[in-house]
Every structure is written in C-alpha cells, then in structure tokens.
Amino acid sequence: MRKTLIALMFAAALPTVAMAAMPEGPGPGPMGGPEGHMTGGPGHGGEHGPRGKGGPFSQLDLSHEQRQQIGKLMGEQWHARKDLVKKYLDKLPAADQKAMQDEIEAGKQKTQADIRAVLKPDQQKKFDEIVKKQAERRAEWKEFQAWKAQQPQKAQ
Question: Would the pLDDT of 96 be above 70?
C-alpha cells in the first residue's frame, strides 16, 4: 500500500519537477541561483547536483531569499498534492492499487532501460551503481516505515 502510494506520488510529481528543470535560457540554475538547484523543495539539491541551466525562474533575477521562499512554496504545493493523491488512492480497491503500482513500475523499468541504452559502457556501470544504491535506500526506508508503524502499538 505504501509502496503504491509512494510510486503514485512520484509519478504525480515527476512532470512538475521535469518542467522546473527544463532549460529556458541563460542562467546559473533553474531558480537563477549559483547553486544550480532550488532550495527548500523535496527532491532538489543535495547529491542530485545542478539540474541544468535556465528554468522557469532564471530570467527573474531572484535573490537568495526569494529562491528560498519560492522553493518553500513549491515544497508545500508538492506535499498538498501528495496528500490529495493519498486521499483518493486510499479509496481505490486493492486490485486497482496493485495494477497501478505494476504499471508505474513497468514504466520506471522501461525508462531506466532507455536511459541505460543512451549511456556509454563506463556510464552504464556508474548508472547501475546509482540504481542499486537507490533501491537499497528505498528498502531501508520501507523497513524503517514498517518499524515506525509498530512503535505506537508497542507503547500501548
């Protein structure tokens, strides 16, 4: 159930992130900042690094504070969308949730295979390592969530 929800949220948020990362013109980063990524929003920055030049806000000459505020607003929008998706996803029958999860996973696998086909052999090796690390982190997160869900039960 949680895996399906996470996959659905990822699928729902992916177009927004992709649009925010699309180059639109000169500039140091999508938000016009020197760090090349938006601050405050989920999935932005950290080990992901710069998301390319340009972006929807690159032409606005935003200050650092403005980038932070916009990042916070976009993060809040992402969380609100996540909650909305969860609200309706919880109403789906288990069979539909499973079918959706399978379809999302199949799309993810196809995209990874397509990306891998574009890469050179040394890049493919690095890409495979990255994918493996991401899978390990997802497994650890799932294990933590299961542990966390049982904690209130043990306290009672």
Answer: yes
Q: Shortest CA distance to 64 belongs to which of 42, 86, 32?
A: 32
- Looking at the domain assignment, is residue 66 inside a domain? yes
Classify residue 49: in a domain, yes or no. Answer: yes
DSSP code string of 43-100 = T-SGGG----S--TTGGG---HHHHHHHHHHHHHHHHHHHHHHHHHHTTS-HHHHHHH
Element (H, E) at 156: none
Asked if the structure places residue 132 within a domain, the reply is no
Pick 81 or 40 by higher pLDDT: 81
Burial 106-119 (b: 16+ CB within 10 A, else e): eeeeeeeeeeeeee
Count H helices and E strands in the chain, helices first.
4, 0
Does 83 reside within a domain? Answer: yes
In terms of Cα–Cα distance, which of 80, 22, 11 is closest to 54? Answer: 22
What is d(CA 41, CA 63) in angstroms, rounded to the nearest whole number? Answer: 17
- SS3 (DSSP) at 37: coil
**Distance between CA atoms of residues 31 and 21, nearest Å:** 9
Structural domain containing residue 15: 2-92
Number of domains making up the chain: 1
**Whether the model pTM is above 0.85:** no
